[in-house]
Specification:
9 helices; membrane; 257 residues; 75% helix; elongated; two-stranded antiparallel ribbon; 7TM_GPCR_serpentine_rcpt_Srx; G-protein coupled receptors family 1 profile domain-containing protein; transmembrane helix; mainly alpha; GPCR_Rhodpsn_7TM; single chain
Length: 257
């Protein structure tokens, strides 16, 4: 009797967060908001790189701790603006089905706008801007290095390569979720194909986005654990010297020159 009651209570607790409940629908909307925070974070990182390359010395003031906090706040604000429509839980929602393991937007006009217009449109627009900024950043790196007449230090391109990899992962996600999955129309016959090109690739993108940080920053982590203050001092000195060299090159060649 106790086992039966315990099981019934467990099922009740699980049902509170099922795809048909208000809580389940709001959790889906919250997940989309967090996704958008991640998307806007990559845009801010791209702008950050562009500022450092075009304004090496001024970037220390432009990217101060106060301004960085403001940018982070803006990113979270924009992300959670996407959450507002999901409070209209009966027409505007995205839910995860435990039966077929798929995410799906509401089969309504609002659901279509949330999925195909707001979510997809935001992703394409933001990543288009990132691509534009990064192409210009590459152009600036090549031009400034020719003027400075020196080889670029590996640490100076570490963050750039990191963001390019992360950007590529997100592009693959958008391509799979909105294009490749469209080739599989029969949810019964193509169930696993749809799952791997939608739900799986969505979650896998978030995992890889975080794992990419490890190879790029593992040595920094070890140095911090060992209290390698000398290494930090040398790195800081090299960064300052690089800023000075890039600043001289920037002064002699305008950003659009």
């Amino acid at each position: 009797m106790l086992r039966i009651n315990f099981r019934n209570e467990s099922l009740k607790r699980q049902s509170l967060f099922s795809s048909s409940t208000i809580a389940g629908k709001l959790i889906g909307g919250f997940m989309v908001a967090i996704w958008d925070v991640s998307v806007y974070s990559h845009l801010i990182s791209s702008i950050n790189r562009l500022i450092v390359l075009c304004f090496p010395i001024a970037s220390r003031n432009l990217l101060s701790q106060r301004n960085t906090i403001i940018m982070i706040a803006i990113v979270w604000f924009l992300g959670f603006l996407h959450f507002i429509p999901y409070f209209k839980v009966h027409d505007c929602y995205i839910v995860f089905s435990s039966y077929n393991y798929l995410w799906s937007f509401a089969p309504t006009t609002c659901g279509f706008l949330l999925g195909k217009v707001l979510d997809f449109g935001t992703g394409v627009t933001v990543f288009g801007l990132i691509l534009l900024f990064d192409i210009f950043t590459i152009y600036r790196i090549r031009k400034l290095l020719k003027v400075a007449k020196r080889k670029i230090h590996p640490s100076e391109v570490k963050f750039f390569l990191q963001s390019c990899l992360q950007f590529g992962v997100f592009v693959v996600k958008l391509t799979c979720f909105y294009f490749i999955s469209g080739f599989f129309t029969d949810i019964r016959a193509d169930h696993w194909e749809i799952f791997f090109t939608t739900s799986f690739v969505w979650e896998f993108t978030h995992c890889i986005d975080g794992l990419i940080l490890i190879p790029f920053h593992y040595k920094d982590y070890l140095n911090a654990r060992r209290g390698n203050y000398m290494g930090k001092s040398i790195a800081s000195s090299m960064a300052q010297r690089s800023r000075m060299e890039l600043s001289k090159a920037t002064i002699s060649h305008s950003p659009i020159g």
